[in-house]
Write a structure and sequence with these properties.
homodimer, 374 residues, alpha/beta, Aspartate Aminotransferase, domain 1, Aspartate Aminotransferase, domain 2, 2 domains, globular
């Protein structure tokens, strides 16, 4: 297993604990506040939080999520289509555990990828097949190449939209194409849509709009509600797949924690206020996206144009051979931590989290731009 | 995969949701309160709970746990010996994932077993080797039989003490024997000690007292603090094993939720008050153990004498062929839910949770004893 982002993050944490001042841009952790009205909701749940909740998630919360996404994407989802997990991560891990039960399964992943996908597949003894999105296409994936990568052993194709680390958003016609392809070729189209609210250029369409039993979409409280520590995610998919996932979760972690689930159950009693919150965070993200894009553009630095997500994927200075070396130098000399592109399968790029304070973002940009002759 | 306890529990939840009055004794959920002083601690953590915590657990909390168990068992544990998980269950799942990475691994499990062990091993494509503890020995496991079950493929032996479902506690000399055997034969002795505080006959000794690098002990907030829903567990083991487990957790769930970890970090700032809480719960458990034992004894019913844990393992009436049938009848006719022994590998027994209110316990005993001619 390759070094993980969280390993890198642990290093920064230890530097901070030792009193060093580090500006962190490694994780795509939104440093935006969760909804202001959440605090009052969580305060109410303590007494009810002691007993076990059922595997797959609290029934009421699952129904609320089914209703929420039914309304949002004009489809008809039921409680049995919803699976709640210990972060979007656990949902992916359990789904891949299920899909890779039969040996020799292949999972198609687009690079640059979220580092966890190949690590998970390796851990679960599956075979990973990488389809490269190219810098010349601004890292937008090639649908023909994806279609050609499908074989009888393909159990799933993982799509991230809005994409982490590149910020690209899959166009609606391509979402439809992939959903149809999944049905036709009988693999699962896993759509990691945890950055659903960060959609700056109005391009994002959930695969739920083209839902069929081969489509599976993942969302998270970490990214949508800035609650990374709470470990809560949810997903919408085929009821038979979800039934089997519940069986696995009941042996792996039982369920996500009750406090987060019960607080969210309260939160979803009134979904109108959520829309306002989403819009506020979108505006925060867009302000930072625009600021970073302008800075890198002005400096003549190559980057992928982020249409969504909360990060920017930037080419390293030509003096450096690889991003590991560059990021190590940035951490050591400039006390800023970035995520080296090797983790995402692109050694000439690094990822910078944008969802930080404007002050820290400007300071981070100032320090990194020194390396580009600015 | 066999039907799980949580599947059964889900059934009862749905009956309750449909308005049926069911007395539940299926899960070993302590219906005792968590520490009264916990509420004020959890109220303080909200603002700090948003960002990710490191995989393996919060550093401060890990150090607190290391200190706590160092003092308790007069050994010297460090932060690096502690791993925190989404319940004791996730810890076991990740440890078994690690130990079964190399193919053809065998895991030795004592029956009657906690249903989850064989289900996990099956899911992780390992081979399970059952060593039967017998009713004639009051279900106390035979050390010679365990030693004989070890082969070069043995990756771990799982011991549960105090035992769920039988309530037996492994004697100190046998704990030492097994810890030495693990070192000599180089397997991991996994000691599931989640019922550590329920030790009615003063027999329980943690394997941490005889710790070596092949010993790994698991504990949980679910059982020790009656916080099943919070999904928090912790463990003490070899630092190299734990380092690898952190790598797996970082890809599977990231970490347990921040609210529980930060609240426990506050809780552990003052461990004296915890001792009082443990003693209170022990007394509650003992009162119920004594009550249930007296009732079954008086009725001439066969059962394993519980020296610890919060359940009693009871022989089904002779009119019934198996516990599934008996428990199904109890649920249907008497509206009480028990856990059928098939789940634990003993089809002539059922398990009854004792950690309920005295009123419910008496009522449950009354309803079940009807089937024994009482």
């Amino acid at each position: 297993m390759k070094p993980t982002l969280l390993y890198f993050f642990g290093k920064v944490q230890k530097m901070k604990a030792a009193g060093e001042k580090v500006l962190g841009f490694t994780l795509t952790t939104p440093e935006f506040p969760p909804p202001a009205f959440l605090e009052q909701e969580v305060a109410k749940v303590y007494e009810d939080s002691f007993p076990y909740l059922p595997s797959g998630g609290d029934f009421v919360f699952r129904q609320q999520l089914a209703d929420f996404y039914s309304t949002k994407w004009k489809r008809k989802f039921k409680e049995e289509n919803v699976f709640v997990g210990t972060g979007g991560k656990e949902i992916l891990y359990i789904l891949l555990t299920l899909l890779l039960k039969k040996p020799e399964g292949e999972i198609v992943v687009i690079s640059p990828y979220w580092a966890t996908y190949p690590n998970m597949v390796e851990l679960l003894k599956g075979k990973i097949k990488i389809v490269k999105a190219l810098a010349k296409d601004d890292f937008y994936p090639d649908m023909d190449k994806i279609a050609k990568a499908i074989t009888s052993k393909t159990r799933a194709v993982i799509i991230t939209s809005p994409n982490n680390p590149t910020g690209k958003v899959i166009k609606e016609k391509d979402v439809k194409f992939l959903a149809d392809l999944a049905k036709k070729k009988d693999f699962v189209l896993i759509c990691d849509e945890v950055y659903e609210i960060y959609n700056y250029d109005n391009l994002y369409v959930s695969a739920l709009k083209y839902f069929n039993k081969n489509v599976f979409c993942v969302f998270s409280a970490s990214k949508t509600y800035s609650l990374c520590g709470w470990r809560l995610g949810w997903s919408v998919g085929d009821k038979d797949i979800i039934k089997e996932m519940i069986g696995i979760q009941s042996e792996a972690t039982t369920s996500p924690n009750s406090i987060a689930q019960l607080a969210f159950r309260n939160l979803f009693k009134d979904t109108k206020r959520l829309e306002t919150y989403f819009a506020e965070n979108m505006a925060r993200g867009k302000e930072r996206r625009d600021l970073a894009v302008a800075a890198f553009k002005k400096a003549g630095v190559e980057y992928a144009h982020p249409e969504g997500c909360i990060a920017i994927f930037v080419k390293i200075p030509k003096e450096f051979d690889n991003a590991y070396d560059f990021c190590t130098e940035l951490l050591k000399k400039e006390k800023i931590s970035m995520a080296p592109g090797e983790i995402f399968g692109e050694k000439k790029y690094f990822r910078m989290n944008l969802a930080v304070s404007i002050t820290n973002l400007k300071e981070g940009l100032r320090r990194v731009l020194k390396y580009y002759g600015n």
